[in-house]
Amino acid sequence: MTNKKQKLELTWIGKDEELKLEPRILIEDPNKSYGDKSAENMLIHGDNLLALKALEQDFAGRIKCIYIDPPYNTGSAFEHYDDNLEHSTWLSLIRPRLEILKKLLHPTQGSIWISIDDDESHYLKVLCDEVFGRKNYVSTMVWQKIHSIKNDARHISVNHDYILLYASNIETVSFNLLDRTSEMDERYKNPDNDPRGPWQSGDLVANEERSNGRFDILGPTGKIFNVPTGKHWVYSQENLKQLIVENKIWFGVNRDSFPRKK
To answer: Listing from the earlier edge strand, what are the strands of the sheet with 111-116?
Structure first.
């Protein structure tokens, strides 16, 4: 009796047909070279899989940030590549490239950002879980790609694409976040001199009526508050009382306004 270790994975026809790539080298074209050679900037012309294989020798484990924009497999016609591949062929095309890209990533500070749309995004997510490790998944960002008012979609209008973000090591990676602007800071005030610093207030009420979601709240001036019919408090009565004790509920300057969370 055999005891095969099973795992969750995405399978497709041709997945087990591994490519055998020989080591490659990059050859400089002096006629097209420009700028400071010590800057290590390169524009590589050719098959991207072979180019990645050539980069692997000198750059494995050194790249901190990778962005790729693979074919979306939408069926569109492009001059330099086929964007209408059979689904399993598309997966077989993407996987070896992801595997080399993983080798290029810095082991502690590497991250890879991948643009994709609805056609293959969910399959790509599962494939990336397998290549980079599901625990190293950071986030999926949604960005609006169409701003026109009119749209001729037959069923549902889709005006966005995605960027999948993975880290080489989720425990050690860090990102250079943008500095806060004065405009952002102006949204936060501290009218009650809270020692925790400036804050904003948020709604404590949600749509839909729940059996345990309507109850009275006693304000600091003795005024009673409750949610309108058909709505509910977003916190339980016990938790809301605790938030009031912790001075995390705002009743307005005169302490008799409808409560909001700080």
So the answer is: 65-68, 111-116, 160-167, 137-144
- What secondary structure, in 3-state letters, does the chain show? CCCCCCCCCCCCCCCCCCCCCCCCCCCCCHHHCCCCHHHCCCCCCCCHHHHHHHHHHHHCCCECEEEECCCCCCCEECCCCEECCCHHHHHHHHHHHHHHHHHHECCCCCEEEEEECCCCHHHHHHHHHHHHCHHHEEEEEEEECCCCCCCCCCCCCCCEEEEEEEECCCCCCCCCCCCCCHHHHCCCECCCCCCCCCECCECCEEECCCCCCCCCEECCCCCEECCCCCEEECCCHHHHHHHHHCCCEECCCCCCCCCEEC
Taking the C-alpha atoms of residue 229 and residue 192, their distance in angstroms, rounded to an integer, is 31
249 bridge partner residues = 261
Which residue, among 101, 125, 111, 126, has the nearest Cα to 169 in the 3D structure?
Answer: 111
Instruction: Report d(CA 34, CA 42) in Å as an integer.
Output: 10
What predicted TM-score, i.e. pTM, was given to this entire model? 0.70
Q: Let me know: does 114 contact 105? Beta carbons within 8 Å.
A: no
Reported as a single tens digit per residue, the pLDDT across 112-160 is: 999 999 888 999 999 999 999 999 999 999 999 877 656 677 788 788 9
